[in-house]
Amino acid sequence: MNRCLGCGAILQSKKKDEIGYIPKEKKEEKLCLRCFRILHYNDLKMVELPKEDILNTVNEKGEYAFFLMDFLNMNKEVISVYKKISIPKTLIISKVDYIPKYINKEKIKSWLKEEYGIKEEILFASAVKNINMGSILKTLEKENKKSAYLLGFTNSGKSTLLNHIQENSTITTSLVPNTTLDYIKIPISEDKYLIDSPGFQYQNPIYKEDIVLLKKINPKTFLKPITYQLKKGASIVIEGIIRIENKNEKCNMTLYMSNLLDIKKVYEKNEIGKEYSCKEISIKKNQDLVILGVGFINIKNDAVLNLYIENQNGIEIRNSFFER
Ligand SMILES: Nc1nc2c(ncn2[C@@H]2O[C@H](COP(=O)(O)OP(=O)(O)OP(=O)(O)O)[C@@H](O)[C@H]2O)c(=O)[nH]1
Ligand SMILES: [Mg+2]
């Protein structure tokens, strides 16, 4: 059975619209049409994943797991999936290259341990900037394991990391949710290998099928957090689809999210974003308002906010790691 070298799907030449399709005459190339189009034309086609249970497979067959979670997506939904992994594991905070330098990583570690009850080792890594790549192999050696699954939500950087550890690896990487469609086993030393896996999906992503928005959500470079001071009645509007209105006297907030997003301050007369469902939330000084899949907003003083968003389940409030 031949598999696509880019996404791991089983190659087939019968159904053009299904995963793993490769024209008969191209069969030697071992790259499905979808991966070929992502690579050469940046053609971003989303597909529905077969409903296979990744966690069951890993918990039944795995020796070890590395779970990737990027800085902007450290939240309950992601961590609850991490906690369901029952085999030995390490948590990797990926894409560390875009975390602002002034943020103390040790604080993040102790916060993850205390706030979310993480007990295992936590590493920070960046495939793009080659930070801490060696620690993966070292961990496997230390733990005396032959193989490990790379797990994480879609876009957390699993395939990119694997391509950097093993230069001969040609797994397709992109911003399309579910770029990787099946397990891909790649040797990383004489007797050890890593297994790339399909990513987990958010229950309530705000991007849905919107690839343009998805591209903006994912930061390309160093994050530059922006601080806003909102008077009573003033709002922050993010991409016209999230509106946060201040109901008290004054509210200071700092936004940690991609600088490619269109963010503006508006006043009461501007109706933008008010078509979405509204919920009043009380938030304490130094808590974060987390927008799942997008990033978080650190609130500097006790506040009451009106939050307008299509799906209120995409929101979480947590204690921040800043004032620890
Ligand atoms: N800044 C930065 N971007 C990264 C890094 N690693 C990956 N990316 C980007 O993140 C996006 C997703 O990367 P992938 O490696 O395809 O993510 P994945 O976890 O394999 O995603 P799925 O296969 O969909 O589950 C790509 O646009 C990468 O270029 C990193 O270390 N730093
Ligand atoms: Mg992948």
Describe this protein's structure.
The chain is globular. The chain is 19% helix and 26% strand. The chain is an alpha+beta fold. It folds into three domains: 1-43, no CATH class; 46-196, Rossmann fold (3-Layer(aba) Sandwich); 226-319, no CATH class. The model has no long low-confidence stretch (mean pLDDT 91). The strands form three sheets. The protein has a six-stranded mixed β-sheet, with helices on both faces. Strands 7-10-14-13-16 form a five-stranded antiparallel β-sheet, with no helix packed on it. Strands 11-8-9-15-12 form a five-stranded antiparallel β-sheet, with no helix packed on it. It has helices at 33-41, 54-61, 76-83, 105-116, 134-143, 158-165, 211-217; strands at 65-70, 89-94, 122-124, 147-152, 184-187, 193-196, 226-231, 235-238, 242-246, 250-257, 263-266, 278-283, 287-291, 295-299, 303-309, 315-319. The chain is built from seven helices and 16 strands. A hairpin with a 3-residue loop joins strand 13 and strand 14. The structure holds guanosine-5'-triphosphate and magnesium ion. Residues 158-159, 179-180, 196 line the site of magnesium ion (MG).
